[in-house]
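Priority: medium. Attachment 1 of 2:
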């Protein structure tokens, strides 16, 4: 009976979710690297990568809801998608405060951005571990 939830989610659905989580991780690394372009004429690259990260988070949430993932995996995947959406929000608020000359506010928002980044990596690793532990259902009904 405990294995019944695993039978609802297909192996292809698990692989698709894993690919999206990995894509979000790669996008965040690219976003981090594009941060070195801040205060240059190429700062727009930051906005592009953060926008892609937010869109990827929305796609992950949609795929998670459609995938029939079991409870704990679904929860961690939804947190991963939500944090991917919150990261661009915090970045925009931070950049707005920085560019409008509010150093105290930008410092506070930068701290929140670092905490959100830590949370993002914790749930990304948690998602990958949980999805990696999930196995395809055994056709003969015997758990491995």
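Attachment 2 of 2:
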């Amino acid at each position: 009976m405990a294995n019944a939830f695993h039978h609802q989610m297909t192996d292809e659905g698990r692989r698709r979710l894993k690919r999206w989580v990995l894509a979000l991780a790669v996008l965040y690394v690219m976003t981090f690297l594009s941060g070195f372009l801040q205060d240059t004429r190429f700062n727009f690259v930051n906005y592009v990568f953060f926008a892609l990260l937010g869109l990827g988070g929305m796609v992950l949430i949609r795929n998670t809801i459609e995938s029939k993932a079991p409870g704990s995996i679904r929860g961690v995947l939804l947190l991963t998608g939500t944090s991917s959406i919150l990261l661009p929000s915090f970045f925009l608020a931070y950049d707005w405060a920085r560019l409008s000359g509010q150093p105290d506010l930008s410092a506070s928002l930068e701290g929140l951005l670092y905490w959100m980044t830590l949370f993002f990596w914790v749930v990304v690793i948690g998602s990958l571990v949980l999805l990696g532990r999930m196995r395809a259902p055994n056709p003969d009904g015997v758990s491995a």
